[in-house]
Amino acid sequence: MNESDSVPVKPPVARKEPTYRTHHGDTFVDDYEWLRNKESAEVLEHLAAENKHVRELTQHQQPTRDAIFQEIKQRTQETDKSVPSRIGDWWYFTRTSEGQQYAKYCRVPAQNTGDEHADWTPPEIPTDAVLDGEVVLLDGNKEKEGQPFFSLGAMAFAEDGSLFAYAVDNAGDERFTVRFMDPVTLSHYDDVIPGAFYDLALAPANDRVFYTVVDDTWRPFQIRQHVLGTPVEQDTVVFEENDPSMWLGFDLSADRTEMVIQAGNSEYAETWVMDLVDPGAQPRLLVSRDERVLHGIDPVQIGDQRYYLLVHNRQAPNNELAIAPASEFEKPYADQQWLTLIKHRETVKLSGSAVNRRYLILSLRENTTERVQFLSLDQVAEFIASSATASTDSSTASAPANGAEPLNTAADSADLSGVVVQPQFDEELCSVWFSDAPYDSPFVRLSYTSFFTPAQIFDFDASQQQLELRKETVVPGGYDSSQYVATREWADAADGTKIPLSVLRRADVTPDGTNPTLVYGYGSYEASMDPQFTVPRLSVLDRGVVFVIAHIRGGGELGRSWYEQGKKLQKKNTFTDFVDATRWLIAHGWADPNRVAAMGGSAGGLLIGAVANLAPELYKVIVAQVPFVDALTTILDPELPLSALEWEEWGNPITDPEVYAYMKSYTPYENIRAVEYPRIAAVTSLNDTRVLYVEPAKWVAKLREVTTGSEPIFLKTEIDGGHGGASGRYEKWKDIAWDYAFILDGLEVSQ
Question: What average pLDDT does the segment 220-226 reach?
């Protein structure tokens, strides 16, 4: 609050209109459900009044916002370019220019000298000059003109460079319009596909495009095929998923000859493949959902035989890697022979795989952080051959009985974990992931970062075990990483569980009990809050604030069990972990007990709302970003966006009275109580399709009604925005600056 204000400015008061929600014999009276009507003039007026109230009462924070925005701007190399990626005979890259909100998407011809290392080494893109043959395919700044919002979704480039397809969202609702361009003439085709989702791919002959569409609940449920030059109304459905709890998506095989179709949720999946060379081919089932196996599949060619790699959790909670020839999937599941390449490990979570012509690339998580490993396909071929020989020679080998689990063809003691290649980096708390693995390239592109190391892009030659640095993000303004420290601490949960914390601070900050502290968390969907450098966070640390990321249960930092301990009927562990972590930080001197803030977004907003109910006395100020605070109401209505998909995360309260009672006992909106709540800001977007604006709108109205305290509670709505807020990099920086200025003001940290 601005202490100079002598007369308190009263917030908008939402009228009450009782709505009755009854399930399992329990009736909940909701006075603010009427705010759901997005088309209502009264609702829009209320949101506008809330925004006006926010502006009036936080106007004194504007100098801090301006300062943080300028700090972000000064620490960002605004005129910059990406590392080019090669597709066919072209290098594709982006440029950003000072003063412009959006990137330009460009290409330049590649060379073909016969020296593959030279041919696959990306050209150096000058920031102040244009290369010979460089063409701007798409300028986001021009695309934004006359539109309230601009976001680029998927893009697809023809291998021969003759076609460019891209998807644009002009509302923030993540429903895209697909357009097609001739990259040579820069002219657009007449074909326009409205209402597409994120998946987009061109067939090898460039005559067809595949895309996904969503149903009324914003769930991708169809893969469609569009033949260029034909009316969109004639597009055919390649695959349809009618189970409301299954998310549908697709990808192309590394050699672009097959489509891999997968329907799944957080507990099991189903995979089909479809030949793209034959236009008349139909999808073919590989692994059915009936087996309840969570898995991912990559097609791979080894010699003259087609194989499928499987990262799966069958009797392996942290996943293992297997391979099987295509012919194996023609058998009943119980008779299939999957050869294990990498066994299950209790301390390592195998996250996924990819392939190119030479390598099998593995993504894994060990000691909470991401790593990448490589196997040559020659090694895999040798292992397959030796395992087949061992199986033939073994006198104990026998075929599985009907109904038995699939068996490996090799001895249980053998796998390839001892011959993997893993690029090594110096920092313990860092993130490494593969970002591109072109099929014919001798390199695999890796991204590297840590909390205080700006992003670096490498090309890794696994045959030479050599890293080639392609780009190191420049941080202007004299940034010195030695001025900051990141350490891993372990807090004690009430049940004895050790909770990993990432404690970030300026190097001169010590645990003396006087530090203003911001605690951030998420803790859902097995998502991990990995080490990553961000410029805006420096502005908080520079003001003496300790920034803590609580890696609470429900995330994926410590493997599958860590996730399962924070979902469904164990979800409350997520919230109590965050509270216990906060208490540990106070007890161990990292945080001033009177100056602690909490922040989280989306499902992390649910976390923050639950924490505000559990321990409001611990926090001085809270920012809840697009918060999922009315989760039970949403999940009880399968017609609302994504509701049915949430059953595998939280349970199904519609059919299960135990799940209903458990959710009702923690969901933030239902559990607001007569206590002194801290200062709170709920930030949302009118067009958000993932967490509807009505959830924070109702939550704020109820909080104001019930709180016994005098701290202000705000609702800030981005009218032209989506789940990620406003579009444009400068607008996003302003949003970040607003959130941080609000927190700093609440923590009584000077500008």
Answer: 97
Place of tokens 């609940």: 217
221 in Cβ contact with 201 (< 8 Å): no
CB 363 within 8 A of CB 434: yes
* DSSP classification of residue 418: G
Predicted confidence band at 413 (pLDDT cuts at 50, 70, 90)?
Answer: low
DSSP code at position 404:
P
3-class secondary-structure state, position 349: strand
Report the range of poorest mean pLDDT among 67-71, 324-328, 409-413, 601-605: 409-413
**Closest residue by Cα to residue 655 from 640, 644, 668, 639:** 644
Q: Tokens 């003496």, residue?
A: 544
How far apart CA 740 and CA 724 sit, in angstroms, is 16
CA atoms in the 13 A half-sphere facing the CB of 239: 26
pTM higher than 0.85: yes
- pLDDT at position 309 is 98
- Estimate to the nearest angstrom the gap between the alpha carbon of 557 and the chain centroid: 14
For residues 171 and 147, what is the distance between their CA atoms, to the nearest angstrom? 8
**Strands across the sheet with 430-436, in order?**
430-436, 444-450, 456-461, 466-472
Output the pLDDT for position 408.
Answer: 42
* Distant-in-sequence, close-in-space partners of 549: CB < 8 Å, separation ≥ 6: 501, 502, 504, 520, 521, 529
Tell me the sheet residues that pair with 210: 201, 225
**The amino acid at 656:** D
Radius of gyration (C-alpha) of the chain in whole angstroms: 27
Model pLDDT for residues 112-138, shown as the tens digit of each residue? 999 999 999 999 999 989 999 999 999
CA nearest to 695, candidates 745, 740, 650, 640: 640
pLDDT at 395: 41
Q: What is the pLDDT of residue 396?
A: 44
Residue-wise pLDDT tens digits, 555-602: 999 999 999 999 999 999 999 999 999 999 999 999 999 999 999 999
The whole-angstrom separation of Cα 224 and Cα 210 is 6
* Residues involved in catalysis: 602, 688, 723
Q: Are 178 and 211 in contact (CB under 8 A)?
A: yes
Q: Are the C-beta atoms of 724 and 152 separated by less than 8 Å?
A: no
* Ramachandran category for residue 334: left, alpha or beta (phi over 0 → left; psi -120 to 50 → alpha): alpha
Who's near 650: CB < 8 A, 6+ residues apart? 567, 568, 571, 631, 635, 659, 663
Task: Please name every residue paired with 575 in a beta bridge, in sequence order, or none if there are none.
Answer: none
Write phi, then psi, for 73 (nearest 5 degrees). Answer: -60, -45
Q: What is the dihedral of CA 142, 147, 152, 153, to 10 degrees?
A: -150
pLDDT greater at residue 2 or residue 607:
607
Q: Which two tokens stand for residue 504?
A: 């970030």
